[in-house]
Write a structure and sequence with these properties.
single chain; 388 residues; alpha/beta; D-Amino Acid Oxidase, Chain A, domain 2; 8-stranded mixed β-sheet; 6-stranded mixed β-sheet; globular; binds flavin-adenine dinucleotide
Length: 388
């Protein structure tokens, strides 16, 4: 039985998160939009794209990541005009805090990389930092970096704007449609199977976020991606207290204040999480994140947490995403592995992925981003500022 699809798609994208939607949008500029089909097993914001902290920062240790994040900032600054939905991109800055000489040295190196990419990052000693971030008062603070064009975005309108634009262009998006099988023949990908039936297609893009490993497995492929559960919380809303997102290296913690006044943030899980795609919330996280917030901002000790939730980071061994056609299966494209930073990097990653799907050349170094890079020894250096 074939699923009822108006005309056979040329490209099927598995996943309607920020990566899938931006990629579909880039494809729709260069091919017949009605031949693009986006499938999602859940609803539009069911994945990490509806569960994240909205941080958009250009402070990275690798110049390429800085450049991609700069592209993200450019796209999000004009998103409301281009897509008709305002994602309330608020450029209140980001501050990375140092608590040891080692952390100071590392951040100062990163500062050099970011400045080298033309961004006016500053180093602030502890006093100046505390002026920039009122109420920040943790013991042992040495100083930190500050970049005022970094910011925070509200993720949902980004998804709504992309969806509306795609539907206007004629791209088909089917939610509540799980891909349960990927068929292959001697030439490569031959089709995808959903519970409603089979869809013949020769190009499939795995933009399934934390489920990218299991979607690869449907095609018979093992990949190094690991889904990793990360929790995040929101407090009750209070008056505006501070502008920048505050980040620590030692705990991988991050906190920002939303325009509604809630403090939103989380920290890196301390122990290895059980493998899998489960999303339970834990009282341990509530305790650890509250303790961390209180240590950074002692005067917020009585603030009440309103809710917490979890999402998946799709992690790769070197901290860089995986983009491109899988050398083991013609027609099967990987567009995943964005860890805890896919929202800010999607505007740069998606057009490059779309170009690869269309067989065009890109500026992507396959040794850094290609799906084949893990099979050869001597992989490129890790992006170190993968936090949260
Ligand atoms: C707690 C947390 C905080 C974060 N904070 C930030 C941040 O501050 N800044 C930032 O840039 N990034 C952040 N991230 C990371 C960011 O959210 C992700 O990198 C990004 O959203 C990934 O987008 P995606 O489109 O690749 O995946 P997703 O948004 O996860 O979308 C994948 C989609 O695939 C669908 N799917 C899966 N399997 C199937 C199947 N078999 N068939 C059909 N559909 C399927 C899912 O339903 C899902 O909707 C955070 C993530 C978490 C969890």
């Amino acid at each position: 039985m074939s699923a009822p699809v108006a005309s056979e798609p040329e490209v099927v994208l598995i996943g309607a998160g920020v990566l899938g939607l931006f990629t579909a949008h880039a494809l729709a500029q260069r091919m017949d939009p009605s031949r693009i089909l986006v499938l999602d097993r859940g609803y539009l914001s069911a994945g990490a794209s509806g569960r994240n902290g909205g941080g958009v920062r250009q402070q990275w240790e690798d110049p390429i990541t800085v450049r991609w994040a700069k592209e993200g900032v450019r796209v999000y600054r004009r998103f409301a005009r281009d897509f008709g939905f305002n994602p309330w991109f608020r450029q209140g800055g980001y501050c990375f805090l140092a608590f040891s000489e080692e952390e100071r040295a590392r951040l100062r190196r990163m500062e050099g990389v970011v400045r080298g990419e033309g961004l006016p990052i500053r180093w602030l000693e502890a006093d100046a930092l505390q002026e920039r971030v009122p109420r920040l008062d943790p013991p042992g603070l040495l100083g930190g970096t500050e970049l005022s064009s970094d910011g925070v975005i509200y993720p949902f309108p980004v998804l709504w704007g992309l969806r509306a634009s795609l539907l206007r262009l004629g791209v088909r998006i089917r939610t509540r449609t799980e891909v349960v099988g990927i068929d292959r023949d001697a030439k490569g990908v031959q089709g995808v199977r959903t519970r409603e039936g089979r869809i013949p297609v020769r190009r499939v893009v795995n933009v399934a976020g934390g489920a990218s490993r299991s979607v690869s497995a449907l095609a018979g492929l093992r990949v190094p991606n690991v889904p990793s559960r990360h929790e995040i919380l929101a407090t009750e809303a209070v008056k505006p207290l501070f502008d920048p997102m505050v980040v620590t290296l030692r705990r991988g913690s991050y906190f920002s204040q939303s325009m509604r006044g809630e403090i939103i943030g989380g920290l890196a899980p301390e122990r290895a999480e059980p493998a899998g795609e489960g999303l339970p919330s834990s009282s341990r996280f509530l305790h650890d994140a509250s303790a961390e917030l209180t240590e950074l901002f002692p005067s917020l000790a009585r603030l009440r947490v309103l809710r917490s939730w979890a999402g998946l980071y799709d992690e790769t061994p070197d901290g860089f995403p995986i983009l491109g056609e899988d050398p083991r299966l013609p027609g099967f494209f990987q567009g995943n592995g964005f860890g805890g930073h896919g929202f800010m990097l999607a505007p740069a990653g998606a057009p490059r992925l779309a170009a690869l799907v269309l067989g065009e050349s890109t500026d992507l170094d396959p040794g850094k981003f290609g799906p084949g890079r893990f099979s050869s020894p001597g992989a490129s250096p890790r992006e170190g500022l993968v936090l949260g």
